[in-house]
Amino acid sequence: MSWKKFLTSPVFFKNLALALVIVAISVFGVMKFLSVATNHGEEIPVPNLAKMSLEKAEERLSDIDLELHLLDTVDYNPAFPPYSIVEQDPLPAVTVKDGRKVYVKINSGGYAKVVLPELVQKTYRQALSTLRALGLQEGDVKYVEYMAKDVVLEVKQNGKTLKAGDKILKSSKIDFVLGDGKTGFQDQEMDSINASEQLEPAPAEEENAE
């Protein structure tokens, strides 16, 4: 059979069609393999891990081919269970490729303790500023007679007097006993009256002088 007849024969067209099918299948297979190998077009939405334990979050991420990575423990937040996740990166609903690490921070097991500094004889404004910087809260304020106004005389918690160096839990409420500033003015007024009486001559002495 000549080439001309072969190229126009049904056998040639049959072989050509078979070859094209094989090439098409091969190309499709290679593209599919590359797509899987490079995760092309495959994105996974990151779930919300807030308030989950590390174990539960790790299982949740493992089911969707993501990895959990613990960054740090943060100060206790009462809005979250102890040792639960409070922060994550990427954020929930952000889409990522499989194998991506999700970084998390967990809640502490409870409030930390702070050392109470010396607050007695400081002004109320100074004491309050120090209190807030330590993560403590202002409680009740009581005034008693004292010559200086708004000076801290006592610091208390649940009725117990505190002193510098005591350790108390963060977010605790601290009560203050302050001076009312009235006693000093009364004493000064009495001293002025007494001084005036001493300076005035007695009536008998004035008659003798005449």
From TrEMBL:
Keywords annotated in UniProt: Membrane, Transmembrane, Transmembrane helix
Name of the featured protein: Membrane protein
Cell cycle as UniProt keyword: no
Residue stretches in coiled coil: none
Organism: Flavobacterium enshiense DK69
SMART domains linked: PASTA
Ranges where the record places region Disordered: 185-210
Domain PASTA, first and last residues per copy: 41-108, 110-180
Entry's transmembrane regions: 12-34
